[in-house]
Structures
1.
Amino acid sequence: MALRVDRQRAGLWLMVAPFLVGVLVLVVAPAAITVVMSLFEWDLLRPARFLGLDNFRELIGDAAFRASLRNSLLYVAIAVPLRVAIALGLALLMQRRERGAGVERAAVFFPTVVPDVAYALLWLWILNPLFGPLNLMLGALGLPTPSWLSVPASARWGVIVMGLFLIGEGFLIALAARRAVPGELYDMASATGAGPWARFVRVTLPLMSPALLLMAMRDTILSFQATFVPALIVTDGGPPPYGTTYLPLFVYRNAFEYLRYGYASAATVFMFVLTASIVWLQYRAIDRVRRGGIWAGSGLGA
Amino acid sequence: MTRFRWILAVATVGCVLSACTAAGGEEPTPVPEEATTISVWVSGDPEETQAFLDVAEGFEASQDAIDVDLVQIAERDDLIARLSTAFAGGEPPDLFLMNFRYLGQFESKGALEPLAPYLAESDAFTQEDFYPEAMSAFQFGGEQVCMPQNVSSLVLYYNRDLFEQAGVPLPPAEGWSWNDMVAAATELTQDADGDGAVDVYGLGVDPEIIRVAPFVWSNGGEVVDDPVSPTRSAIGSLRGIQAVQAFLDLRGVAGVTPTDEEAESQNFEERFLDGTLAMMMESRKVVPSFRTITGFDWDVAQLPVHRRPATILHSDAYCMTAASDRKDEAWTFLEFALGADGQGIAAATGRTVPSLRSVAESDAFLDPSAPPANSQVFLDNIPFIRAVPNVETWPEIEDVVNALLEEAYYETGGRGEAGELVVAILDQTAPLFERANVE
């Protein structure tokens, strides 16, 4: 018996080994090297020079870094709730098996499969202040036409709007999670006189909360990195001085354009710690709400 | 290993054949030699890099021993990123083409093979055959490290038809005053259909340090305290501030250049091609694309002047990497590319102002039938050319200054104050100059 369990376990390890090797070589090792590099001044050409924590001290005083940090936090704070809410909303709207639902769902998912650079180039055209279709449309409707690329606030909104259409994966998770909610619960809720809002708050949300937590955490991690291509291609980090310079662009410029790999690694480590902290806070917050918060009354939240 | 085996096989077959022929007394069979391939990385738009493709093809046609693998990279930033990782990975190209402003970060780290010894022994040309204004930008510690392929500079492109339609006298080839230029640009800036939006702008010039610098010099100011080993920005002198203010006023006061929104929507090159920009300040690099213009006549003139003529060097050089193991072959290519044949081919595309005097002063470059008619302007500019420093942190300094300049240039409501701007420039570039001197 014990032999069979051992053999089963060995089989599992064997199956998971390729993945583990991949994670080790492609994620853990580079991450460890990044942490080590953050303590050095290194341009990849001359021998590295040990600096201790000097790179981190310099980061704190660097106006470009502070601006990118602020921009990244602002992006995550606005984009993540919006993206999760839109993915959830669309999943609830499209969860029924109806004629044409497949086409609708494919349309929601489609932008996610467009290559990043092609997607960014498309938006470079859409957001063109004078000739872009977005402003032409807004103008035709008599609405204000923002200078998407030349005013910092508008440019930041432009980058957020670009991200709102890339919700395919979250949408699929939400769709699957909604489908997993047993229909009888809605029947029972209706029988006790619950309206649509009460059903949403007392049935849908509590039962989907693990999936929503997963979506929010995943989206936070993704959002810290997702600004890179739009900032590089659409806004070039501007309007000046650092309108849409986000952490990934800051890292890229310092590493690959200024050959300051150590300094860029320090910024990367900072970004990693920040992302981990926010994800942890999200986890704690949602966990607390589930245990004793607004959903407890439904009897399903705990 | 495969190549080695192949050569071994060919050599063996060759030996056997030669033994046979020796025995048989017949003509020896020629053994085909495998060509060596050198890699050359360049950046630029397809119209620009066509010149380098043509040169590489010309070189391959001139001999059989060396092939050129020319890699075209769209943006200079991407070329730098790719180079830095290639150096780190130990697989850099044999040669690459780079503007002098971005070389400091590679040169100071021993990644480049100095070309002075090759030049000293070359039969193809000597140091004196090239314009010293271009050569000096690629010298480090007095040694020639890279070899310039061009000696371009900032000039004024103008749409002759727009000037004539507006009844504005054409820019003289030289000695146009700044104020006369602004007056002409003001007359040329027009809202033809009266809809409140400007249809034709008088001038297009990017708010960048390499565009502002010539006017600071022209007014008697300086950009840095020491052109070779700068320790700080020197743009804050009275003459410097005057020139910067005059530049900012192009947008803020005269309104003769497109607004931020308009510039973002359509760049100056496209506007000039469209015939909606009367003048534009650029280097030689736009000529291949401007040669496609059929709807109007255009030409070039020297930059307008504050007190004395001045312009800025735009020059790219071929650099050899220290890690290359095909240095002799790479130099053979350079002797072709930088010699009369190669520079003649590049000049014919319109892209370059040849760094080799004999070609620059020949019809290959000056041919008046190939626009611009007045290419002589680029040669007349040479005595007034100055260069910004090529210290290690210069790319960072440029990025910081350009961001500040752009912000001040497009700022409305009278905030485009040169005094305030130069204080910010001095403040924000100080640590970057300091780092350049420490490293």
2.
Amino acid sequence: MRAWLYLITAAVAGAVVTTPALLVFVLGGGSVDDALFVALATLMLVSALLVVTMRDIIRCGLAMIVAFLALAGIYVIVGAPLVAATQVIVYIGAISVLILFAIMLTQSKAAPARLVFQTQAAPAAVAAVILVVLVALAVGATDWGETATRVRLATDTLARVLFDDYVLPFEVVSVLLLAAVIGGVFIAKREKEPG
Amino acid sequence: MGLANSLDSYLILASALFGIGTFGFLARRNAISMLMSIELMLNGVNLAIVAFGSFIPDLMADGSIIALMVIAVAAAEATVGLAIIIAIYRNRQTPLVDEYDAMRR
């Protein structure tokens, strides 16, 4: 019985993700890129909504991994394959695993998550919707001076710029990561003060 | 249609992701859920940066590199944030932020 339930859930999820893409592809006359973009965007938004609304926090973490993966696909479509690879390695490989471990370390049976949301959840939803609408209006009203098509940059060009113009920020980020690692270990490992 | 070739669609998608993260950060009770929402917001900003780098001629190489820097800073932020949450959990035995009320009693 459980297996059938999972299969039906997977089929419904696949239909939800692929239907807008097929609509764009067949009815709207879009290209394959458009269909892929719409499918990945739908997948990302749905799983992001699941992240902020689901009751079981470990499932929220797994949905977050799906959202990160869809976003990596969108990076590939927009023409930044290096950022997509970094997204997979850092976000899915490191940050998600870190968050899943933190979930396992901090969720106790004594504090069941009956109430998922704060009392201000409804005003928070209104505020978020207003924010998105405002940003969308601003985006629509602005002329960015953009090119007609997206440009894919070669990775060796990126590397040249990174190690020529951006050497100082690169080194500062490495020092920041070192400080964060040391600080994280210090804060998480500190024992109770004696006396 | 040309959805994949227009900067506006990427920016609106990024703002939608940022808005979902905002809602999660304001509405969830669990500290780790709030941290995950912050990660979603950072991803939305990152998508906007990469889209600008891919469409604006003046920002061609800079967009991807700034996005890489943002990813590194997000990793640092997640490390320290989770360490702080674990340290608080050790003291208070709860991950729910509305029970962290030591400073307003």
